[in-house]
């Protein structure tokens, strides 16, 4: 199997798993928001998860992605070092989880009171289990990515999504409320972690004959490379979670529910881009080491074009149908999420590019540069959130996200350009053509949307837009139907 076939195969496996994960997440969102929890309960659940995502930073640091990078490098050049790498990271993570989990258990009530919601204390106490389960699940996924066995990584992700759905709904129906949904998350991640660590141990760790000596300086380099990755991940979590936490601090749980719901919908839309970025990124490290920059450039440019081709019209369409979609599918109680979703539609395009690019920079050895960019924009995002949320409400958080992420994407693209020498003029022309086609599609959808009065008609409006876009994309030469059939097949 050549590299391109391997990428397509890995992309399909990752996309199927991501589809299962996102479908289960969508069903969980729908059932919880529409039937099982009111906006206050929904907001309380995801506010607690946002806080724990920040705490998780201290329990994981950047060790998972650092070891994935070195596994990718050493599994070919010196496979005997792979068991040493895995052993070092697992030991470090156990120590970190023990320290952070103990601190959280001791101070969970004080943290909840300091953030203005003492009622969140039970979530934070149970958060010790959440940290362990989530850490194990994500570590298994990333480590398997480092081995370039994306099918196994995909299985772990799919299990976590399906497990969360099953147990969260079951526990809420058992009368445990939002806290029951939280325990459903814990059980889902725990099952995924068990399966993932089992695959990692029996399928990979035991297959490598451990070298007699740990290569001198390798553990130090592993830890050193985790530092910029920690900075990047910290900034990424701040970007994704601090706004949710601040909405809860400055406003109320219902506002958290509106903002969280809008962000979850954008996450669903972004699944294909995340799958593609997760799939192609390990190849860049291998290609750079082999001096195959031309091939790396071709793969990245093709992927970027496809991402823009999909997500520019998707973002525009999402902004247009946001109101009928939210009020008809989720319910009138969540109408407050409409302006948030419309603003975050712009974030969809930006995050799609980021999903394609960020992991690739890590494998190209540019984690430090990306960390600096991410850190700067994350701090700017924090400042804008503090400024805008109290003044213009929950929409301010969405505006801050879009504004700061625009800068981060521009810097990321520049770093990739310095590494691969992208054809900027060609990319600009293609983007302009995509925007022109999207403009025609938008006019068509805008004409149809006022007629929408049911879910069936909403689906028809979306279908009209998709057909218009597809026809124009084929006629303009942006989409080759033959290539699409080959990928699907």
TrEMBL record:
One of its GO terms (cellular component) is plasma membrane. InterPro entries: Poly_Biosynth_Transport, Polysacc_synth. The chain crosses the membrane at residues 20-37, 43-63, 84-107, 119-140, 152-176, 182-204, 307-330, 336-357, 378-400, 406-425, 432-452, 458-479. It is a multi-pass membrane protein. It is found in: Cell membrane. Keywords: Cell membrane, Membrane, Transmembrane, Transmembrane helix. It holds the Pfam family Polysacc_synt. CDD domains: MATE_Wzx_like. PANTHER family: O-ANTIGEN TRANSPORTER-RELATED (PTHR30250:SF11), PST FAMILY PREDICTED COLANIC ACID TRANSPORTER (PTHR30250). This is Flippase. It comes from Natrinema pallidum.
